[in-house]
């Protein structure tokens, strides 16, 4: 049974008319423009919240990490709505406009003085600056979380709708799917690069209101790109709630827990079956009393496999959380770190601290095409894998490299602090470039590898939801960052000092020690990932053809009757 895809009117797709890279290119357009819009806000948000809304530095950092964390956490909502009810295209269309409205509201608040606290220098006079409260804070958070809600629901569907334009059963199409993931990351890099250079420069020199306005305009262009490909898309129809079949498997497995599974079960109706989490196989057993015909007492193998996949990928998912906690530092404390340094490049031109985050993307717009055109074909000949190296190997390389980003950050911050306090010298902002550069390389491996891993492990009807788990990892990483900042301040607090990160002046803080702590956590996390990935086995039903499909026979007999033994 082949996977079913329909056009925008619900009619079956035609191979020569729908799908392929000609359709995916419109999705990639939205990927680039949406990333450009949201990155311009998120990556420089700490500057706006600190300087314009007058939140203390540690609170500003937490506002940013909570905002970005919420963006990625809400991707689970987007994935669920897409797979269960709306489909990827309509989910993107609806929530794209929600995000657009959030950008417009941010622009209005940044433009109207009455919606912000009076101007005040937070660095020199922070204790006397009026913090945004009441309706001013409410408007800020409504705008931010409209953007978060819209962007979160878009992200997994951008990936899944683009990937759905390629069929996984066809070897040639499978290679194009791997290429699509690399091109999608290239579009992501281009969006980030423009946001962190041009748009951040506009925010710095023309005002945050103009910057937010440009983000709104760019988002509008992205929505036009999405709509332009409507007639070309291959759409996967929603299959109803994905949580109901999962709940049915768990209930059925518990109900039939005393049943005995055959020891040599390998095939069900010619569909490959995995041997991990065997206790769940009992959900497929028909008891002798014949009372388990209810879907809550007898499930199909594809339902069981779906639950097994979700359980098996959780350890891999968990190992990427620390990686994203490191990313959170580069978007918060490292930006403030740069603001204390000499930002002048040449006479008359200074680089905005937030634009330092563009450094890895400048590198990656050259490295990603090189990786796809040179490294992947070479590795493909050696390994025989369509992606060159497996997604798990790619993730592991990225996790290992990420540790050195924090090592570099700690060493530079120590030198910067000593220079400022003991030598009254201001170091060049380019000293912190290596930490961004190293992390950019690690992200190319980890981010793309994780998305490809989750998409390729998913069964029909759960592509968007599993892809959303990639972004959920970002969410947990940013939330963990907020928790760590608060915990570190509590633990390191003394009578004479408020903690490593409690002051608005980084020269009085110990950001270098915080970076060292993260480097240690990252290294421990890498070894944990090595352990988890060693025992992970790819779902064989996905590595040798298409997704599993239900067979009515699964409900007609006992386990021995439906398994080919």
UniProtKB/TrEMBL annotation:
Sample GO molecular function, one term: transmembrane transporter activity
Record keyword Membrane present: yes
Subcellular location: Membrane
Keyword Oxidoreductase belongs to the record: no
Pfam families, per the entry: PTR2
Membrane topology (UniProt): Multi-pass membrane protein
Source organism, top-level taxon: Eukaryota
Transmembrane segments: 21-41, 61-82, 89-112, 137-158, 179-202, 214-233, 307-327, 391-412, 432-455, 476-493, 513-531
Similarity comment: Belongs to the major facilitator superfamily. Proton-dependent oligopeptide transporter (POT/PTR) (TC 2.A.17) family.
Protein name as annotated: Major facilitator superfamily (MFS) profile domain-containing protein
Naturally occurring in which organism (per UniProt): Gossypium darwinii (Darwin's cotton)
């Amino acid at each position: 049974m082949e996977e079913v895809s329909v056009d925008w009117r619900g009619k079956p797709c035609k191979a020569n008319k729908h799908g392929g890279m000609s359709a995916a290119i419109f999705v990639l357009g939205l990927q680039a423009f949406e990333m450009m819009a949201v990155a311009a806000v998120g990556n420089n948000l700490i500057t706006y919240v600190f300087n314009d809304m007058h939140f203390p530095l540690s609170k500003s950092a937490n506002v940013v990490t909570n905002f970005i964390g919420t963006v990625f956490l809400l991707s689970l909502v987007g994935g669920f709505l897409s797979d269960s009810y709306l489909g990827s295209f309509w989910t993107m269309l609806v929530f794209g406009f929600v995000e657009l409205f959030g950008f417009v509201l941010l622009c209005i608040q940044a433009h109207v003085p009455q919606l912000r606290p009076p101007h005040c220098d937070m660095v020199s006079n922070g204790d006397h600056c009026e913090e945004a409260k009441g309706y001013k804070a409410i408007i800020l958070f409504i705008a931010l979380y409209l953007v978060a809600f819209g962007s979160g629901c878009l992200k997994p569907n951008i990936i899944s709708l683009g990937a759905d334009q390629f069929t996984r059963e066809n070897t040639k199409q499978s290679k194009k799917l791997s290429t699509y993931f690399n091109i999608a990351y290239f579009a992501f890099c281009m969006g980030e690069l423009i946001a962190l250079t041009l748009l951040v420069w506009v925010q710095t020199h023309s005002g945050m209101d103009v910057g937010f306005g440009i983000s709104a305009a760019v988002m509008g262009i992205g929505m036009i790109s999405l709509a332009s490909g409507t007639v070309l898309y291959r759409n996967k129809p929603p299959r109803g709630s994905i949580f109901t079949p999962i709940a049915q498997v768990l209930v059925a497995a518990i109900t039939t827990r005393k049943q005995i599974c055959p020891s040599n079960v390998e095939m069900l109706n010619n569909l490959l079956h995995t041997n991990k989490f065997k206790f769940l196989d009992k959900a497929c057993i028909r008891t002798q009393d014949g009372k388990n015909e209810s879907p809550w007492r007898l499930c199909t193998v594809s339902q069981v496999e779906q639950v097994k996949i979700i359980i098996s990928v959780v350890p891999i998912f968990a190992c990427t959380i620390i990686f994203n906690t490191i990313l959170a530092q580069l978007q918060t404390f490292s930006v403030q770190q740069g603001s204390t340094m000499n930002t002048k490049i040449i006479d008359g031109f200074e680089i905005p601290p937030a634009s330092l985050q563009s450094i890895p993307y400048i590198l990656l717009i050259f490295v990603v095409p090189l990786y796809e055109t040179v490294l992947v074909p070479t590795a493909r000949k050696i390994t025989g894998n369509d992606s060159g190296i497996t997604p798990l190997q790619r993730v592991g390389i990225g996790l290992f490299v990420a540790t050195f980003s924090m090592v570099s950050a700690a060493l530079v911050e120590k030198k910067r602090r000593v220079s400022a306090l003991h030598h009254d010298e201001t170091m060049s902002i380019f000293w912190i470039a290596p930490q961004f550069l190293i992390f950019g390389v690690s992200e190319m491996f980890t981010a793309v590898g994780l998305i490809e891993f989750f998409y390729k492990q998913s069964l029909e009807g759960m592509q968007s939801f599993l892809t959303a788990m990639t972004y959920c990892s970002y969410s947990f990483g940013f939330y963990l960052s907020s928790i760590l900042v608060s915990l570190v301040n509590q633990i390191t607090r003394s009578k004479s000092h408020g903690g490593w990160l409690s002051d608005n002046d980084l020269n009085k803080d110990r950001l270098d020690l915080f970076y060292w702590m993260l480097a240690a956590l990252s290294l421990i996390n890498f070894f944990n990932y090595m352990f988890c990935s060693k025992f992970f086995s790819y779902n064989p039903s996905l590595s040798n053809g298409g997704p599993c499909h239900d067979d009515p026979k699964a409900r007609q007999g006992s386990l021995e009757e439906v398994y080919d033994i």
